[in-house]
Amino acid sequence: MINLNINNQRVSVQQGTTVLEAARKLNIKIPTLCNHSDLCVAGNCRVCVVEQTGARTLIAACAMPVSEGMDIHTNTLKVRNARKHIVELLLSEHRSDCTKCYKNQKCELQALANEFAFGDTIFLDLVEDHQYTIDRSSPSFIKDDSKCIHCQRCVRTCTQLQQISAIAVANKGAHQKISSFHDRPMSHVVCTNCGQCVNRCPTGALVEKTYIDQVWDAIYDPEKHVVVQTAPAVRVALGEDLGYDPGERVTGKMVTALRQLGFDSVLDTDFTADLTIMEEGTELLTRLKKILVDGNKELSLPMFTSCSPGWIKFIEHKYPEFLSNLSTCKSPQQMFGALAKTYYAQKRKIDPAKIVSVSVMPCTAKKYEADRPEMRASGYKDIDFVLTTRELAVMIKQAGLDFKNLESSNYDSIMGDSTGAAVIFGATGGVMEAALRTAYEIITGREVPFKNLNITPVRGMEGVKEATVKIEGCTDDWKFLEGAELKVAIAHGLVNANKLMREVREGKSPYHFVEIMACPGGCIGGGGQPIPTSMEIRKNRMKAIYSEDEHMVLRKSHENPDVIAIYKEFLGKPNSHVSHELLHTHYTERDNF
Amino acid sequence: MENKGLSKVDLIFEKVDPKEVLIKAFKMTSDEIIKQMLDSGLKGRGGAGFPTGLKWKYTAAEKEPVKYIVCNADEGEPGTFKDREILDKVSYKVYGGMAIAGKAIGARNGIVYLRGEYRFLLPQLMKELESFHKMISEIGYDFKINYCLGSGAYICGEESALFESVEGGRGEPRNKPPYPTTSGVFGKPTSINNVETLVTTMMIIKHGAAKFTELGTKDSRGSKVFSVSGDTPTPGIFELELGMTVQQFVNEFGDGDTKAVQVGGASGFCVPRKKFQNTIIGFEGVPTGGSMKLFNSSRSMYNVLHNYLDFFAEESCGQCTPCRVGCQQLLKGVEKVKKGEAKSTYLNELIKLADTMKIASKCGLGQSVGNAFRTIVENFREEIIY
User: Fold this and answer.
1) CATH code, A439
2) Could you tell me if residue A219 is inside a domain?
3) Which CATH superfamily groups domain B18-213?
4) Are B170 and A169 in contact (CB < 8 Å)?
């Protein structure tokens, strides 16, 4: 243990602890900007400078490891003056149109300015000296360089967590900026639109592209019938933007809020998550049969899930030779969109042209996905507008709803029913678990051999997880699988996806079925979720997801009554002709540069 | 104040038989070599002046099997050109110094990081390196040197930014600690030394530490190669014993009308005429990596300062706030004051900013911008304002 003094208080910490962490142990607050618990230390904003007795310069608390006998002071005049200067310097480069900024009151720079830089401005305005660009080219997010404070959180996110490097530091000195490949628009570089950068940007430099006004317009248009679907991960995170601690399940209140906002029908993406299991499970079993029994040489394993649009864009750019290994299933959002303007329209006897389909997603990549040209199977744009969890919270605040005191209510019928298998789609490993619960039962006629249906080996925050399920006691149709060991793997965060895909490329992958989610933790850690994010917050959301599952009466996708009904009335059977038209898609090879 | 006066020395460019010196060095133990360096009092010749013996001692103490000796030949400080001359004339002594360092710290690999603008020297340097490799294998010693070229960024002369550049990354300084002696290039213990330092180490082995300490003062041992430029009838490279005053230097090199000497380049200090007599060139006074620029009364010190600030605003890596934004503010600030668009008292705010940059910047670049700023503004305030 290392002993040191901070503000004359003694503290003992492990070797390797930073001064910042040691101070936190003493509940001494040192302001930070570039620091983020998910990312490596940068030490570049310098806001966290503190005084070390005997040192020539101030030290950055976030980057300085403790040493024996250190004497640290966090609030001396020297420190305060330097901090004030640093915040003022950042402000001088920053377009401070705070009252109109999307991040107003959620901006970390603004919070620091409030503490250190109120009153007269010391420095000259540099904003006009820079030719800042605002890049609105991506359907998912806006990159506004005039708000950038160069903390490089986004760069570290994109490089470290996602291994994409869509954004990187370019130029030096006064011209240094966060740029893209050859300074191209974000829509024209290798970017998965995952929004992890948006989730970690301390200011308004990276924000989702919002469609709030368009949604309000639709709601208030008497001609339009506006349906809304909510993704599994939204219900365990929305509360964070509305006064709850991370990990609070607010499903019922959210449904009531959506109804009070004026949506004509409040439905659940979980319904199409269950449907995905039916379609994707069947696809997997058919593929296994074709390969193992029929000796089909054109198909190959593993089969990959296709729910995560960030992952889809990733594989299209990075591993296009494996596009045929992707499940052809659309994501639950897009299945829902296609059905809302066909099945739902027919059942409710509404002209699909008058339906506006809105989804609330934990995700920014979903905005891009909804804009894909192939996502118009209904004859219309299947999903009109995608809102993030954060945008929904904004709408709830705009409408003045007292969220905490809302009564809970249930989703509307037709495409509103769901099971516990669907809700766990929101956490890494969830799709796999849901698929196994159903597939095992199809093959053997028995429930998966895990206590209380909880397939724990596929759960948790480990980057790459794997599991083997031994298949025994097959029904007659599936005898060819008797005794087989189904090998599955799960990766979340594109750095881990990359790890797994390299193995696949090298032919070292033993798996039959692989689930990949672009974001750390899966959708609960999505780029559209409330800010801030951290491992602890994601774990709390994950806990809530599994608790939501346990509280459901039905916990297997094939038992969802709405799913049974839609096959009976509309789709026929899984992977039917109609299914293929509406619920399946194809992929596009994209450049990798 | 110890004053040695001005005397020319011929140590760096002195012809030696490298084989003889190296055989002598390789017969010594690592501790013996390091002791020679410590006894000599040699401080790094790149400008920062860290004791070379200590640097080697720390690196030698690391347990890692793979270590590196890096020669910093990214000579970018405005007004210095002595490393180019050293490489051009006596590169074999640079290589020799690296081999001695390698022996001292336990490194089998050396890297010369050569300033991109010096690429034209490379064919000759490679040829000489080949002879060196041949000679060293004749001695039966295992040591290899590779070249790595910079691309023109001043910041890559900062040791940790240099490592990043060698590794293929963007030239951005790292957080310290860990220091290079623990984790340098490729994360391995590294001793990074200036071109001239390495040559000097070879000469210390040849002549012995005792002989070396006869030169210079208590705080600044030995001699130093100076790059003399500006308003001087005799610009060029001169090796001088350390410990002279600026006045003695000006007497030798000035044009009779010298009003200021910028010691240590853009990141160094401006010494005005009234302080010539009492300022020693060396670590007890104004240190320098070799750059000595003389200005006569025809020069506007505003232009000099503006030039330096413009340089820093361009050459900051842009990573840390105080340096990236501070440089822009200092530049724009003096422009405003000059144009009368800001009050002259705004200079006081700017000096405070320069002080913040000195204590809050991440690396030596941002920390030293204030040196020139403060000394020019304080000594030539009227030239900045009017």
Assistant:
1) 3.40.950.10
2) no
3) NADH-ubiquinone oxidoreductase 51kDa subunit (3.40.50.11540)
4) yes
Q: Which of A47, A75, A103 is the last residue of a domain?
A: A75
Min Cα–Cα distance to chain A from B53, Å: 22
Query: Cβ contact (<8 Å) for A150 and B324?
Result: yes
Query: pLDDT of A359-378, one tens digit each?
Result: 999 999 999 999 999 999 99
Q: How far apart are CA B44 and CA B39, in angstroms?
A: 14
**What pLDDT sits at residue A414?**
86
Whether A161 and chain B come into contact, CB under 8 Å, resolves to no
Q: Which CATH architecture has domain B301-385?
A: Up-down Bundle (1.20)
Domain edges within chain B: 18-213, 301-385
Say whether residue A165 is in contact with chain B using an 8 A CB cutoff: no
Name the amino acid, one letter, at B38. L
Reported as a single tens digit per residue, the pLDDT across A447-486 is 999 999 999 999 999 999 999 999 999 999 899 999 999 9
Radius of gyration over every alpha carbon of chain A, rounded to an integer in angstroms: 25
A170 and A291 in a common domain = no
Round the average pLDDT of chain B to a whole number and report it. 97
The CA distance from B315 to the nearest CA of chain A, in Å, is 5
**What is the count of structural domains for chain A?**
3
The Cα B42–Cα B36 span in angstroms is 10
Which residues in chain A are closer than 8 Å to B315, comparing Cβ atoms?
172-173
What tens digit of pLDDT does each residue of A374-413 get? 999 999 999 999 999 999 999 999 999 999 999 999 999 8
CB contact under 8 A, B329 and A63: no
pLDDT < 70: residue spans in chain A: none
Owning domain of residue A163: 89-208
Which residues of A are known catalytic residues? 280, 283, 307, 327, 366, 369, 374, 523
Helical axes B346-360 vs B364-379, angle rounded to 10°: 150
Asked if the model's pLDDT at residue B3 lies above 80, the reply is no
| Residue B349, both tokens | 């705010």
Instruction: Report the CATH number that the domain containing residue A50 is assigned in CATH.
Output: 3.10.20.740
Do A285 and A184 share a structural domain? Answer: no
The tens digit of pLDDT for each residue in B245-284 reads 999 999 999 999 999 999 999 999 999 999 999 999 999 9
Structure tokens at B128: 């000489």
A493 burial class (0-12, 13-18, 19+ CB within 10 angstroms)? buried
Tokens 């990359």: give the residue: A498
A120 and A69 belong to one structural domain: no
DSSP label at B352?
A: H
Same domain, A120 and A70: no
By Cβ distance, the residue of A43, A64, A172 closest to B316 is: A172
Which structure tokens are listed for A308? 């995560």
